[in-house]
Amino acid sequence: MPQSLRARRIWSSAISYLGALAVVIVVFGPLYWMLITALKPHAEVFTSPPRWLPQHPTLDNFAKAMNPQFLQFMGNSLLVSLATTIVCIGLAVLASYTISRPSGRSGKSVIVVVLISQLLPPAVLLVPLYRSAESLGLLNSYAGLVIAYLTFTLPVAIWLLHGFISSIPAELEESARVDGLSSFRAYFSVIVPLARPGIAATAAYIFFTVWQDFMFALVFLTDQDKRTLPLGLLGYIGQYTVDWGQLMAASILLLLPILVIFALVQKQFIAGLTAGAVKG
Amino acid sequence: MKKKLLGALLVGGLAASLVGCSGGGTGASGASGTSGKTLEVWDMQQSSKDINAAYAPLVKKFESDNPGTTVKVTAFPYEQYRDKVLVAMKGGTGPDVLALDQVWMAEFAAGGLISPLDDQLASSKAIKQSDFFTGAWASNQYQGKTYGVPLNADVWEQMYYNADMFRAAGLNPDAPPTTWDGWKQAADKLTKAPDQFGMSLIGCKGETSVVLTDSLLFSNGGKVVDGDHAAFNSPEDVQALDQYKKLAADAPAGTSGTCEQDAVGRFTSGKAAMLLDGSWQQDTMKTAAKFDWRIAVPPAPDGKKFVGALGGFNLAMNAKTKSSDLAFKWMEFMSQPDNQTAVNSLIPALKDVGTKFVQANRKQPDVVLNTLNGGAPRPLSPAYPAISTAEQNAIQAIIGGKSATDAAKDANTAIDQALQDLK
Amino acid sequence: MTAQPTTVHRTGSPHSGPPRRTRRGAPAYKRRELLLQILCVAPPCLLLLALVGYPLVQTLYLSVMKSTLIQRVPTFTGLGNFVKIFTSSSFWTVAANSVIWTASVVVLQFVLGMGAALILNRRFFGRGLLRAAVVIPWVMPGVIAGALWKLIYEPYLGPLAQILGLVGVPAQNAAWLGNASTALFAVIVVGAWKGFPLSAVMYTAAYQNVPEELREAARLDGANSWQVFRTVVLPSMAPTIRSTLVLTTVWTFNYFDLVYVLTNGGPGNSTEIFPTAIYRIAFEQVNYGVSSAYGVVSIAVLGVFTFLYLRQLNKSGSLNR
To answer: B254-312, pLDDT tens digit by residue?
Structure first.
């Protein structure tokens, strides 16, 4: 008995590690190429056959990429992403009050609205968005950009939150009501804290979506100083030349904060999705 | 009661803060509301140059020459530039002065987005047509009026070739091919697929393939557009397209996906012996091509001379600007030799300055200047985007196996249609 | 305070006790509640109306107009734009490409995502780290991913061709992006790589929600791993799978950045999909009328899909919890 159990354990372990290896290769394979391109001097990018280890590795690209302007772009991105996340979560939590409570409420209208909001192809949005922003005086301002982001992340955030919040048992709200709290107050002091993991998960989704956006930033931001990272990275792609080394180095730097944030949030994220898995 | 108020305040406050306050301020649209004292200028950023650093001292000088004015220059990466300009101008705002690609001029002029400058030019002492490269000045004309002032110019293309590979194939590197037939023969000799190829050809979907093909057309005496109808399937054009097709046979696989960067890579890595590209690639060659690389004027059909296709940017004035005098002053300012040199990484459009630039920065400058002076512009039509698309489709079709005659015919129909739609 | 006692049922439905709202007189309280609820939903709804509704209306309006950079004042042209696109072969290519692109990417993302989820739920050293790292492709801006893969696909300078060369595929055939017959496939691979982490994360979480007892029970009944997966795990995960598939379908259909950077719709128009076609016609050719017509069709296709999905959902009754 113990023999076959151990064999099964070894077999199971092997599968786990092989599987993990597969995931690592799929995810990191291309990223490895990104890394070594960042470490190669410009000339080496154009050698054939391609080298898997840089012949003359250099940190030059990273050094050049980490200029003050890049850090400014990163700061801008952080600002916009955080602002959008906070406002979006705030609004989504408020909206969930109506949509997800009392528990058991159908989320049908939510789904319809969510899907409708995602139907528009991006190019169709650019000029109308610009016009609206212009008439509201929101051009070249982060407020306008945040509002634009809200439009597309808010429905999805509401949908995600709906899954979490509506799965919290009604009895908890009820007992709070019995204790004399109004419905609204009960919602905020009892339900919302319980939905914290789900809120964290939703927040992460919003943050990541906004962090990588390029199109809205393009429409709304004109000033050099205000640009977000994706816009900033385009500076490495000229009309005739592409500065591959710096582009890849800057991209890696762009990804690092994300990794850090997600590593921190990861447990919450998964736990949040577990607590009230997205239904419907 | 209290809770309701709280809730209402919260929501109201959020809504108000979203709509009401604009954190970064909005005054950036110089063309729609400021007095004649501020100027907004947009330019395109070539990746290798720190264009903002270049503009900073110029802005200071201009502001001190014109006291009381504020100038704001914004440079955009190439990838975003057209989008940004279109969205802004369609949305009703935009800069006072903007740099426009030569092939966009007719479009913007026909759309009433930029103003004709003839009056100001007539009385200007600082800008004289004869100071500029002919082709560059010509690209500003639309329906008899001048809509811009050239900023920089360049020409497609030169032929880069690998002298080492020539020698290895038994060809004389000091005598590169000068006729189309000779070209094809050389390319054949240099092709030992799959290790080595004669040509590195640009064929991907984009303007660069069009410019390259146009240079072949022009060299053969062909045209894309004649007056207001298409001339793309003339015998000369078909021959030129046929030459392209022949050369593509000696190019590595995937030409229909090969953009400029890819083509350069094939050449610098020693995979292909000849490359058609502009003189601006010389900088890359200097660092990346570790062999004896040379340039020559590309071959022309027997008895004809090579004619390049011109490119470059012009300064134009937004039709909605409220600072037109100041804007024109800026254009005059930018047409001064020192200023133009400072901000350009392409060849400045002023003849003297441009010549000096080429002599200082390019290998075999006489070759470059020759091509530049003899170049012809691409069709100056408001329908240019559609014309370009038709040509791109033709090129892709040819690489995919279609005959030059058929591809030309289809493109011709499309171009005619585009010109028709203008009316 | 309370006029009637309320009983709290720990496991029953919330409505099994006496009615709750009898504290201070039903009508006033109810009105206040209603007002509060409206205020809570108002900002999102207003935002959506302004920023989605307006472009939608604008698109519908322009689709029946002739409006270009030169034709600045739109003139009515009825169904002219639609006739134009429906009779052009390029439209049908775009439509076919879009369907193939979306379907393939969604399926691949499902397979990769589910596979990753199953692996990430096993115990191994470094699992937490891998769970965090797996999101990187998703978080990368589309333009960067496109630029990177363009390098990778390069037939003479890129690693992929080199690897294929080792297995005997000559470089001639490894120019996937440059060949009209393989370009769409090449682009699909990148799309799957880019987006699968979202599915992986969703399925990882949903998997943890599958009751262990059910799995144990199935195993005790003699089912092997695959059967357990098929009969227990998959059905439990069904709601998550459904919602993830819907979201990824809509998002993939409208995904612009990747294809644009990788191939710009080429070679020919073998990788032209609705988002890139709409962008090209609006911003390169500046024909707002025709691009809006394409837009209307694109929205309609997604709309039909959404409608069918909702109807399916309604039927299976899983909307009402």
So the answer is: 888 888 888 988 898 888 999 999 888 888 888 888 899 998 999 999 889 999 999 99
CA B8 – CA B14 distance, rounded (Å):
10
Residue of A nearest to C290 (CA): A124
Give the pLDDT score at A254.
83
Asked which of B253-257, B398-402, C290-294 is least confident by mean pLDDT, the reply is: B253-257
Q: Return left, alpha or beta for B21; rule: phi > 0 is left, psi -120 to 50 is alpha, else beta.
A: beta
DSSP code at position B308: P
Number of CB atoms found within 10 A of residue C185's CB: 16
Please indicate, yes or no, whether residues A115 and A153 belong to a single structural domain of this protein. Answer: yes
Number of Cβ within a 10 Å radius of residue C83: 12
Q: Which residue of B has its CA nearest to A224?
A: B74
Same domain as A4, residue A54: yes
Residue A168 structural domain: 65-275
Identify whether residues A109 and A205 lie together within a single domain: yes
From B113, B262, B382, residue closest to C154, measured CB to CB? B262
* Peptide bond before residue C272 is cis, with ω within 30 degrees of 0: no
Task: Identify the residue whose tokens are 């977000």.
Answer: A228
The answer to whether the Cα torsion of B296, B298, B304, B308 is positive or negative is negative
Asked, for residue A92, whether it belongs to a domain, the answer is yes
Q: Which of A23, A43, A58 is the last residue of a domain?
A: A58
Residues of chain A with Cβ-Cβ distance to B287 below 8 Å are 42-43
Q: Are residues A89 and A211 in the same domain?
A: yes
Instruction: Select the residue of B78, B265, B280 nearest A46 (Cβ to Cβ).
Output: B265
Q: Say how far residue C142 (Cα) sits from the centre of its chain.
A: 15
Taking contacts as CB-CB distances below 8 angstroms, the residues of chain B near A132 are none
Total domains present in chain A: 2
Q: Is A180 on the interface with B (CB under 8 A)?
A: no
Judge whether A280 lies within some domain: no
Residues of A in contact with C239 (CB under 8 A): 277-280
Q: Please check the confidence at residue C104 and state whether its pLDDT lies above 90.
A: yes
- In chain B, CATH 3.40.190.10 covers 38-154+311-374, 158-307+383-422
Burial code (b: 16+ CB inside 10 Å, e: under 16) for C124-152 equals beeeeebbbbbbbbbbbbbbbbbbbbbbb
At B52-76, the pLDDT tens digits run 888 999 999 999 998 899 999 998 8
Interface membership of C278 toward A (CB under 8 Å): yes
Q: Which residue has the tokens 């959506």?
A: C48
Our CA angle for C180, C182, C185, nearest 5°, is: 125
Supply the ipTM of this predicted assembly.
0.82
Q: Is C13 exposed, middle or buried (0-12, 13-18, 19+ CB in 10 A)?
A: exposed
Decide if B18 and A87 are in contact by the 8 Å CB cutoff: yes
8 Å CB contact of B29 and A224 = no
Q: Which fold has domain B38-154+311-374?
A: D-Maltodextrin-Binding Protein; domain 2 (3.40.190)
Do the chains contact at C156 and B266, CB–CB below 8 Å? yes
Nearest chain C alpha carbon to A173? C14
In this structure, the answer to whether residues A227 and A178 fall within a common structural domain is yes
Residues A74 and A39 in one domain: no
B196/chain C closest Cα distance in angstroms: 11
A45 and A74 share a domain? no
Topology of domain B158-307+383-422 in CATH is D-Maltodextrin-Binding Protein; domain 2 (3.40.190)
Q: Which CATH number goes with the domain that contains A174?
A: 1.10.3720.10
Kindly identify which residue of chain C lies nearest to residue A207, measuring between CA atoms.
C139
Intra-chain end-to-end CA distance of chain C, in Å: 33
The domain boundary, picked from A18, A43, A58, lies at: A58
Q: Which of B21, B74, B83 sits opposite A223 (nearest CB)?
A: B74
* CATH for the stretch C100-271: 1.10.3720.10
